[in-house]
Amino acid sequence: MASTAISNTNGEKTNSLTDIAIGTMCKNNGCKQAYEGAGKGNLSCNHHPGIPIFHEGMKYWSCCNKKTSDFNAFLEQVGCSQGDHCWIKETKTQGHTNCRLDWHQTGPWVVISIFAKKYDPNISFVKLSPVKLSVELYFPSDNSVFSKTMELYGIVDVSTSCVSMLPTKVEIKLKKAEPVSWGMLEYRNYKSLNGTNQSTKSETNVKNETSNNSVESVDLGDL
């Protein structure tokens, strides 16, 4: 362990000292540098200050706009900016805020819109698995966060789903894994006559099919 000054995700140095374990990875987007210890030859941070965008099959960073259809090629794109490493992200006590959420479906797609102004796309994230969606949007101006996790009505194809972080909203396009109409966006648990909570039969079928597929969730915030 070593004691050294740290920097935040904007590359600004802080005055605090903290213990950083050797091998800790830089938290900036696109940087693959590991911490080697104080006074060691830690290289400058090549990172992407923008956000990942997935749109119409193309994948790219908003800061450099180098588009590719290959996901692995997208992950290997070298950062377009240089600055200080961020070994530890700052954590602050945050309040919770509410955002308006709308959704609709068109053919094989379910489109979710979360209306939010002044959120920070660099630290906000959307996490998706075949049957679950988690969203966290951070608002630095009032130190608050919008957080929502839902069990989806149907199964989705994670690899072809996408998210766009726009100035006034977050738009999430979920590709249905099955060509069926969704009666609602998320499942609701109901209470049986004996007082125990049970899920609907359809929800049980969804979970069983998902366990057979063994598909892991994808966290876009870690790209």
UniProtKB/TrEMBL annotation:
Residues 196-216 have a biased composition (Polar residues). One of its GO terms (molecular function) is metal ion binding. Residues 26-85 form the CHORD domain. Residues 96-186 form the CS domain. Transmembrane segments: none annotated. It holds the Pfam family CHORD. The keyword Glycosyltransferase does not apply. Residues 196-223 are annotated as: Disordered. Keywords: Metal-binding, Repeat, Zinc. Signal peptide: none annotated. InterPro entries: CHORD_dom (IPR007051), CHRD1 (IPR039790), CS_dom (IPR007052), HSP20-like_chaperone (IPR008978). SUPFAM superfamilies: HSP20-like chaperones. This is CS domain-containing protein. It comes from Aphis glycines.
